[in-house]
């Protein structure tokens, strides 16, 4: 079960779809949401800046003051957005679990709770530390224009050992009602499917999607996966996509959209090729174009 979810709270307006995605998951599992805000260590950053620019000490006091003001602004906004969400959605605020008898009563959606955690230092390091204790990390898109930083997204995927759910640009109505698996006969894809089992078990429909590749004409792994998952849920479909004139990403996302999927599951990559493969290749293009939540595991 996905009961303990960590999500970075950056203090930017782009937090909204991340919060909404995490809440949609929490409604399915009765989860506890940990909103993690990391305030930068301004003194440490200033010291590093001064050390890298020998002799450039003039104006450092003004720079520090501006950085502290910006950190204050981000922290206050992050906490305000968290409190507004809890009040609007009637989420219980607690930092300890209720007694076991309370957990057994009522619908899952009524068991959602949340807490605010503030730390000082480097975002990526704290996301990795909190993420290792979580069932799931929910993060925003990397890239320019706001959202979570690339190093934070990398830390969430590579340094936690936990699955990462990447929120779409707009708040989703649901997460996991129809699950689409981007399948290839690899260890990475198998790990992602294993991480997605809590969603698969609750899904109304599961779709195993493969893209036919000339170099693997006799690959029957998707059929084996469909047969294995059918022991968990009765509605498992399999589709083979033919590579047309468009890219594999376009074919995958078009098929997921037509199936009305609200969760795409796919594998991550190893350390040695993370930047190139995950954020420079197929996966990066999926994250840039997908309008639905994407679950990745390494």
Give a concise summary:
This protein has two domains: 163 residues, Rossmann fold; 120 residues, HUPs (Rossmann fold). The protein contains twelve helices and eleven strands. An eleven-stranded mixed sheet has the order 3-4-2-1-5-6-11-10-7-8-9, sandwiched between helices.
What does this structure look like?
- This protein is of the alpha/beta class and 298 residues long.
- Helix content is 42%, strand content 19%.
- It has an eleven-stranded mixed β-sheet with strand order 3-4-2-1-5-6-11-10-7-8-9, sandwiched between helices.
- Helix 5 packs parallel to helix 6.
- It is globular.
- Residues 270-274 have low confidence and may be disordered.
Topology:
Blueprint: E1 4-8, H1 15-29, E2 32-39, H2 42-52, H3 60-89, E3 92-93, H4 100-103, E4 113-120, H5 123-131, E5 136-139, H6 150-158, E6 164-166, E7 178-182, H7 187-195, H8 197-202, E8 205-211, H9 221-229, E9 236-241, H10 248-258, E10 263-267, H11 274-278, H12 282-289, E11 294-297
Helix pairs in contact: 2-3, 5-6, 10-12
Q: What amount of the residues lies in strands?
A: 15-25%
Mean pLDDT: 84
Determine the CATH topology of the largest domain: Rossmann fold
- The helix/strand class is alpha/beta
Mind summarizing the main beta sheet? 11 strands, mixed
N→C terminal distance: 19 Å
List keywords for this structure.
Rossmann fold; 11-stranded mixed β-sheet; 12 helices
């Amino acid at each position: 079960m996905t009961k303990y979810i960590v999500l970075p709270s950056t203090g930017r307006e782009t937090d909204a779809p991340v919060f909404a995605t995490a809440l949609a998951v929490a409604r399915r599992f009765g989860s506890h949401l940990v909103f993690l805000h990391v305030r930068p260590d301004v003194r440490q950053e200033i010291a590093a800046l001064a050390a890298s620019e020998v002799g450039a000490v003039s104006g450092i006091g003004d720079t520090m003051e501006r950085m502290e003001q910006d950190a204050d602004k981000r922290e206050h906004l992050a906490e305000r957005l968290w409190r507004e969400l809890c009040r609007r959605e009637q989420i219980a605020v607690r930092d300890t679990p209720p007694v076991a008898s309370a957990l057994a009563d009522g619908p899952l959606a009524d068991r959602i709770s949340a807490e605010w955690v503030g730390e000082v230092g480097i975002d990526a390091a704290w996301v990795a530390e909190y993420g290792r204790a979580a069932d799931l990390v929910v993060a925003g898109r990397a890239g320019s224009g706001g959202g979570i930083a690339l190093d934070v997204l990398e830390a969430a995927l590579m340094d936690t050992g936990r699955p990462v759910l990447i929120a779409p640009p707009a708040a989703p109505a649901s997460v996991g009602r129809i699950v689409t698996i981007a399948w290839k006969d690899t260890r990475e894809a198998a790990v992602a499917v294993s991480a997605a089992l809590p969603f698969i078990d609750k899904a109304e429909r599961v779709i195993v999607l493969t893209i036919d590749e000339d170099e693997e004409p006799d690959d029957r792994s998707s059929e084996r996966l469909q047969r294995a998952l059918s022991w968990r849920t009765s509605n498992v479909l399999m589709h083979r996509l033919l590579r047309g004139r468009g890219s594999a990403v376009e074919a995958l996302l078009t098929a997921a959209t037509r199936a009305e999927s609200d969760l795409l599951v796919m594998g991550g990559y190893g350390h040695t090729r993370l930047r190139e493969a995950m954020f420079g290749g197929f996966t990066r293009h999926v994250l840039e174009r997908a309008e639905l939540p994407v679950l990745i595991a390494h």
